[in-house]
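Cross-posted from the bioinformatics board.
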Amino acid sequence: MIDGMARAATTTDAFNAVAEPRRREILDALAGGERPVNDLVSMLGLPQPQVSKHLRVLREVGVVDVRDHGRQRLYRLNGPALKPIHDWVSNYERLWSERFDELDLVLEDLKRKEQGDDGDE
Amino acid sequence: MTVTSNTRARVTLPTDDQILITREFEAPTHLVFKAYTTPELVRRWWHANRGEMTLCEIDLRVGGQWRYVMSACSGPEVGFHGVYREIVPGERIVSTEVYEGAPDAEAIDTVTFTATGERTTLTILVQHASRENRDAHINSGMELGLQDALDLLEQTANSLR
C-alpha cells in the first residue's frame, strides 16, 4: 500500500536534492568512480563541512551510497536511482536536440546562399 | 562511444521555476537569428520531425504577437503563442509564452544569441511563475511525467534501505 502524503513530501525532497547545482557537481564527480570525501573537497574546491552536508542529503534520497574502507568512508553514485530524473529531463532535451538538428540544416542552407551572393563559381 | 557531428542541446533546471536550453551552432549570429525569427525558416525546423507546423506567425516588434501550431504525428494539434517584449536584432529576444493546453501558465522566454568566432551559442531561458508550471511544461507530450519519475526514484531509494 502506498501512503500518499508521506510519499509526496519525500519525493519533493528527492528532486530538490538532485536539482541543486553543487550536488549535481558531486554526482558528476562520483560518476567517475568511488571516492573519499577529501577527493571531493579538492575536486569541487568547497569546504569539507559543506561537501559533507551535500553528501548527507544525497544519501538520504538514495542517489549516493557510502561504505567503510579501512579508516576511510567511500562514497559512490547509485546510478539506477538517478535514472528516472535523468530520463525525465532527457526526453525534453531530445525534443530540442532534434529541433536544433533540423535548424542546423536550415543554417547550412543560409550559409550556402550567403556565400553564393559573394560570387558563386 | 562514437561522437557524431550532431551537438546535443543541453537542458538544465537552474532554479525550481526555470528551464535553460543551450546549444552551439556552426553559423554566425545573424543567420541563427534569421532562422529563429523568419516564419518560412522556423517552419522548417521547429517541428523536430514530430509532425508538421500548420501555423507560424511572427510579428517581430515589441508588442507584436507570435503563434506556432503543430499537428503532431501522434496526438492532437498543439499551439503556443506569446507577445514580444524586447528585441535586440542578432542578440536577444524576450517574449511571453503560453502553451494553449494550459493557458494560465504563462512563461517568460529570454533567447540570447552569443557569437564565438564564426559560431553562435543560443540559449533559451524559460522562466515560469511556479515550479508546478515549469514541471508541467517539461511533462507536456512526454510518456513519463515527473511524478512517475519521482515515484520510480523513491521506489529505488527505498529498495536500498
